[in-house]
Amino acid sequence: MNITNDIKYIGVNDHKVDLFEGQYVVPNGMAYNSYAIMDEKIAIMDTVDAGFTAEWLANIENTLAGRKPDYLIIQHMEPDHSANIVNFVNAYPEAKVVSSAKAFVMMKNFFGTDFAEKQIVVGEGDTLSLGKHTLTFVTAPMVHWPEVIVTYDSADKVLFSADGFGKFGALDVEEEWADEARRYYIGIVGKYGAQVQALLKKAATLDIQTICPLHGPVLTENLGYYIDLYDKWSGYKVEEDGIMIAYTSVYGNTKKAVMKLAEALKANGCEKVIVTDLAREDMAKAVGDAFRYSKLVLATTTYNGDIFPFMREFIDHLVERNYQNRTVAFIENGSWAPLAAKIMKGKLEKSKNLTYVNTSVKILSALNEESEAQVKALANELCDVCNDGACEAEEAPAPAMKKFVCKVCGYVHEAEALPADFRCPLCGVPAKAFIEK
Fold first, then answer.
1. CB 261 within 8 A of CB 254
2. pTM for the whole structure
3. CA–CA distance, 172 with 189 (Å, rounded to integer)
4. DSSP 179-199
5. Dist. CA 133–CA 191, nearest whole Å
6. What are the pLDDT digits (tens) for 301-343?
7. Phi and psi for 418 in degrees, rounded to 5?
8. Ramachandran angles phi, psi of 336, nearest 5°
9. Nearest by Cα to 219 from 175, 159, 163, 156
């Protein structure tokens, strides 16, 4: 596949993988992308998963047609992109390995060598000339590992974006980009919104006509659409007005309340209502949908003095990925000591800028006249059907967040307090090397 006259695709499709990174269901497989830049000198961009060594090396040989590569550029050290570094060096012993300083440390950890005699260490703004193609390296720490770099080719105006703008799915399967890209981004990169925003600001200074990610299709048209989505996802902005109802139900009574709420919401004119059974549907998609829509209803039972396990896992995923800037409502069920609403709200305390609606639904085992009226009132409030100001929502108090700056590398950590055992995710120094800004 030709990306441009000089840039060739040499990646592979994986239809054997069932769980990407051991947790994400990928029914349409995965693509491990790699590229060859053909010039006076030849650069290979990243390797592929260990299960495709022979296919990848054959792709290089066929594409280069007798020529030898001069450089292997490693942008990201996760094994699905770095596993074949040693095999490449053995096949092409005269080639140099180009990467960040942190990546070479990781190579030592993975392979027992950092290729000292072959390495070219690059950092922010460094360049590499291949002839008419000049590559500029841009650091992208914690997008989503600390060693990551992306690479800009000024000749063809191509951004090699590492895991940025990637998605689940092999390239020989046609599917809508946004759903699987959202599920990929929120699940894998979502925690690092501030770092992605920083990278987007750097990318905004470049004239980009093509984006070549390490997963998913090469993006060549309507780049503003993809960049806008990344800006929304990494800025924790609402992507689409709508209401997601995420629920668990033991004997069906909580589900009945959820279904009544969904019907009432639609009757009130709220057209976009998504209902998700957390015990039966893909958790990564559910998490992605929570970030997609403007409002979220959490419905579950009190269970062992806590909440039902799938709901607990769901909320943990949200908080871990910095869920914020949304409206949240609760439906709880309990036969003798309902605590679910209190527990769910408590688990969301670390999330910023959440607005909680006034109406909460309490079910005592099964729906009755009182709880059905609460369901109707909640539907009215969520759809802004208000009487006498009854829908004025309660703004959750935002925790007092402080900024702690690493004196070594400049990494900024936002938290209420810096734990004593905290270590910088970029350079590894302990908490005492941080100063409060």
1. no
2. 0.85
3. 24
4. HHHHHHIIIIIGGGHHHHHHH
5. 34
6. 999 989 999 999 999 999 999 999 999 999 999 998 899 999 9
7. -95, 115
8. -135, -25
9. 159
